[in-house]
Write a structure and sequence with these properties.
By secondary structure, the chain is α/β, with parallel strands linked by helices. It has a single domain (about 1-45, about 90-255), classed as Vaccinia Virus protein VP39 (Rossmann fold). Helices cover about 45% and strands about 20% of the residues. The strands form 2 sheets. An 8-stranded mixed beta sheet has the order 5-4-3-6-7-9-8-10, with helices on both faces. Helix 5 (about 90-105) packs parallel to helix 6 (about 115-125).
């Protein structure tokens, strides 16, 4: 059922999506051509992907606590099993890197650390930024922390525990958020709750990136609700991820674009 839904959503995306020739916003055109569609091969990519390869070959076993779909589940799993299922592909990690490199945020929120690949892409793109990353499972968090140490990344703070409980108190100690990557509990209610909490600390220059916006009917509904929010003025649907902006003094616009 889920596969059918994804295929249907993808064909709908292909039908409506465009490229730089369909963009009439100078701001979106610049972001699309210089960050989203850029083919620049940054120095950090090779080292992070080497770590991915090692994890895909690692057969060490840890106990996993999973909150990803809204329920707590415990199981013993090998690192390579976790890596194969949960790590985002290089294309997404490198897109996040380019977006951070382009916008130069100072405070980055990463909702869903896992083994740390996307977190490392976020942190490597601007080493003077602070990346606050949230992970529900303590054992996975420890493994990710070891990865950050191997990479020499000192700008990452890990928050361990169910994000439903840890996000609000953590945000209370942050003055503003400049860039947020949402990749945690993939349910409608949780996605909207995380969005609303982060929105309270956002500025008109903040950038929010949502993963898996077409993963399920609930995630598509959450994406539609987020786009319609009164503070959201621009949105970009890239199928696998959606990007929103809170820029003022311009008409509300929605773009569907191919990478």
């Amino acid at each position: 059922m889920k596969l059918f839904f994804l295929i249907r959503s993808y064909f709908k995306f292909l039908f409506y999506s465009g490229n730089e020739h369909s963009i009439h916003s100078p701001f979106v055109f610049d972001v699309y051509t210089r960050a989203i569609r850029s083919r620049q091969n940054f120095y950090a990519y090779t080292g992070i992907e080497a770590m991915r390869t090692k994890m895909l070959r690692c057969t060490d076993t840890i106990t996993v606590t999973d909150f990803g779909t809204g329920t707590q589940k415990n199981a013993s799993r090998t690192i390579n099993e976790i890596a194969a299922k949960s790590l985002k592909n290089p294309r997404l990690g490198q897109l996040l890197f380019r977006l951070v490199h382009y916008f130069q945020p100072l405070q980055i929120i990463d909702l869903g650390t896992s083994l740390g690949i996307t977190t490392m892409y976020l942190a490597s793109a601007k080493t003077t930024a602070k990346v606050t990353s949230f992970e529900g499972c303590a054992h996975i968090s420890s493994y990710a922390q070891a990865n950050f140490k191997k990479k020499g990344l000192k700008n990452i703070e890990l928050v361990v525990g169910n994000i439903d409980s840890t996000l609000k108190p953590t945000l209370n100690n942050i003055s503003q958020v400049d860039f947020v990557f949402f990749d945690a509990n993939h349910t409608y209610d949780a996605t909207l709750m995380y969005f609303q909490l982060c929105l309270q600390k956002a500025t008109t220059e903040s950038v929010f990136v949502f993963d898996d916006i077409h993963w399920s009917p609930a995630m598509e509904a959450a994406w539609q609700a987020i786009k319609a929010h009164e503070q959201v003025t621009l949105s970009i649907d890239l199928f696998h991820v959606g990007i929103i902006f809170l820029r003022t003094n311009q008409p509300k616009q929605h773009f569907i674009l191919r990478i």
